[in-house]
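HOLO CASE FILE
Compound: asparagine
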Amino acid sequence: MKKKILACLLILFPIFSLGIAKADTVKSKYIIASDSSFAPFVFQNSSNQYTGIDMDLIKAIAKDQGFEIEITNPGFDAAISAVQAGQADGIIAGMSVTDARKETFDFSESYYTANTILGVKESSTIASYGDLKDKTVGVKNGTASQTFLTENQSKYGYKIKTFSDGSSMYDSLNTGAIDAVMDDEPVLKYSISQGQKLKTPIPGTPIGETAFAVKKGTNPELIQMFNNGLANLKANGEFQKILDKYLASGATTTSTSTVDETTIWGLLQNNYKQLLSGLGITLALALISFAIAIVIGIIFGMFSVSPYKSLRLISEIFVDVIRGIPLMILAAFIFWGIPNFIESITGQQSPINDFVAGTIALSLNAAAYIAEIVRGGIQAVPVGQMEASRSLGISYGKTMRKIILPQATKLMLPNFVNQFVIALKDTTIVSAIGLVELFQTGKIIIARNYQSFKMYAILAIFYLVIITLLTRLAKRLEKRIR
Ligand code: ASN
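Model generated. Tokens follow.
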């Protein structure tokens, strides 16, 4: 009898514990960051939607556990930074559980096991790690494959080239810019099954289990919900269905499109909505940041010609500091650095929106150059004019407004137009923080269809047309002002 009761308890315990472990959502919505091109885990399909094992899995788990999610796809390295900076609550991106990562992340139960493996072109003669001497191997920044390559570099004597996303890495392999890539085995195998002319000459090396992660010590309920949801999906067969959907032969492909994406026309037809939305972001970024930059730039420009030494000094420091920092670093600092710093002092996550961060970085950057344009313009007006006006008893402010600035403005105008064109082109740089403006949009499309030549040509023409139109418009305005 006793034995029977004990057996019953043993059977019932796991069932109860599953029920008891149900965690409650704390946030109204969880932001989940992911890779941008890591098929079959995450990739864009031909209708420009992100799909893949990870996307289906996290959505199914959220539904099963009743929590809301918003998914962003900035790329693996950026997704990692986003979670560490508190921009996102969790990351699902075919992420390998490594000892080093356990120091900064809390992981869920594993849902896959992957190796890292070397990929080369079908025609390549590389057949062992030994053949890699003096060759260049590409890898995605921040990945477990990168750690593997770095650890074995001195042994095999290859060079490592890091990429921010899979699509540019595979593009470089296809064009021969690099000799091999190191990536997760299912990913390489999947791209081969999709018709990429690649091969994997060496067996893969285990890099660990694949799991969902949150920043260490944060969102414990999210991990709990993920685990509970995963267990439920495994039990009801839905998890296997998701795997089969992408891994079984004849599975969903990246290119189920009916439109032929190998022609420029086909590319435009299938992606024009996405391209236009990217263009919208690019224009908004350029226009808003330039408007802000003009205000800040004029203030600092006026400071730089002020009779007060302290104001001149402030302006000089501003221009030197901002001009001395590359725009990409400035954007990364604002987007990832500052929130991370604030969190380390206050313990509060304080993410900043990527568009806002990009706008601030672009505004500060352009403001430094505009301040110099303003200083140059004012100093180009002969000093005699200021002296003459002042000796007639007219105040500094009035002389500036009525005599110096009208002449200086005419001198500055062409430089302003120039600076605006630069600002518009600089928007491509802030795509590094995962902002999906025009350039990033193009890269995402290429990640799906590998049409880099035609797609970059389309992007170049987009920028060319927009910049030409805007400069024409600016020239007209300039004439009117004159
Ligand atoms: N398996 C890779 C890693 O964990 C993830 C990725 O490249 N998306 O580093």
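CASE NOTES: The chain has three domains: 29-111+210-247, 114-209, 264-480. Confidence is low (pLDDT under 50) at residues 12-20.
CLOSED: yes
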